[in-house]
Amino acid sequence: MITLTLAMLRSFVADRIAALLTLVAPIAFFSLIALFYRHLEATDGFRFEIAVVDDSGSSDARLFVQAMESCAMQRVHVSELRDGQMDNRGMLATVRIPDGFSRIDPHVLLEAASPLPGASDAALQLVNAANARAFAVNVPVLSVQITSLDGMLVRGSAAGIALIFIMFSSASIASRSLGDDALGLQDRLRSLGISAASSTAARIVAISVIAWCQLALTLAWAAAVFHLVPSSVFALACASGIAAVSSAAFFVALAGLCGSRARFLAIAPVITLVLSALSGSMIPRILLPKTIASVGGWLFPAWAIDACSAAIDGRFDVRSIGLLVAISVGSTVVALACARRSVR
User: Fold this and answer.
1) Does domain 48-150 have CATH number 3.40.1710.10?
2) Quick one: pLDDT at residue 10?
3) Residues of the chain with CATH 3.40.1710.10
4) CB atoms closer than 10 angstroms to residue 99
5) Which residues contact 238 (CB under 8 A, 6 or more apart)?
6) Is the pTM of this model over 0.85?
7) CA-to-CA distance for 41 and 153, rounded, in angstroms?
8) How sure is the predictor about 329, in pLDDT bands with cuts at 50, 70 and 90?
9) How large is the average pLDDT for residues 139-146?
């Protein structure tokens, strides 16, 4: 028994890179989660991001905006969105100053996303404080119309959670393909006249179909049970389809770069968990530290989440879908190049 155990351990360390990645993986993922929790616990950690949109342009409105910015507290950050900067994703609340705003009869619209308890209250307190500071003499009663934009977290998690399992299943199938290749599958396919490039392309297509089914079923369940009915079915079909292809192509390319199943099995779970943690699949990006959220915004799962969320809202996110197309094409090229190299 001891001899067999030692033989298994020697087999484990035979691929030093795979062994090292296996041992370091928990440390890497723990570090990401620990940074997130430390960010929440810090006195200067999580901040409420509140946007101000001035549709009035009056002098009183400018005073009110300046007062809001000066009333911002340690955990409440205020930024003004001007024309051409109307993307308020990541904002917990948006204060909109309508046409006709004046100190005589001030009224504003408060659009509260409220993904966390207290977000609406914090925004309301800030608005009232700004009103008192801007018009200190004979302070008028400020009329605040609150609109709750419920479902931000649920909407993002519908695609996010599905993407976690899509990436794991893509990695699992790609790993199985490496095992089949090690047993001589590619040699048998070549004897039948099927090239390595054709085999690799078929794998990407097959994994894409499975991934799309996972995502489509999750979104269908979200629509039926949680009433997340997409406003644009076409946009959602495009977003979910290209998201599935990007995941499939990425992991097939990663498997080709790793070369061996042992190395891929060591690195794929780490890559999947890191992508999930940084992109907002596991933890919404709105809750992450700003630096980490910025990095996560450049990962393909984040683009898939943004594209699917936009489709549910009835928008076609050209940027996110374009980036998903780019990563799909790039990963496919890498996967095909690795396939050609393996037959030499």
Assistant:
1) yes
2) 75
3) 48-150
4) 9
5) 307, 311, 316, 321
6) no
7) 21
8) very high
9) 58
Residue 233 identity? V
Sheet holding 143-148, edge to edge: 76-80, 48-54, 93-97, 107-112, 143-148
Smallest CA-to-CA distance from 50 within 134, 125, 102 is with: 125
Q: What is the mean pLDDT of residues 154-169?
A: 83
Contact 311, 332 (CB under 8 A): no
Mean of pLDDT over the chain: 78
Tokens 């489509």, residue located: 216
Q: Could you tell me the two tokens for 164?
A: 């976690």
Answer yes or no: are the C-beta atoms of 154 and 228 closer than 8 Å: yes
Nearest to 122 by CA among 82, 73, 87, 57: 73
* CA-to-CA dists, residue 136 to 104, 198, 253, 299, angstroms: 12, 73, 63, 47
Q: Which residue has the tokens 């959220």?
A: 293
Dihedral, CA of residue 231, residue 236, residue 238 and residue 244, to nearest 10: 180
What is the mean pLDDT of the segment spanning 66-85?
A: 68
Tokens 């620990």, residue located: 34
* pLDDT tens digit sequence for 21-54: 666 666 665 666 666 666 666 655 556 677 788 8
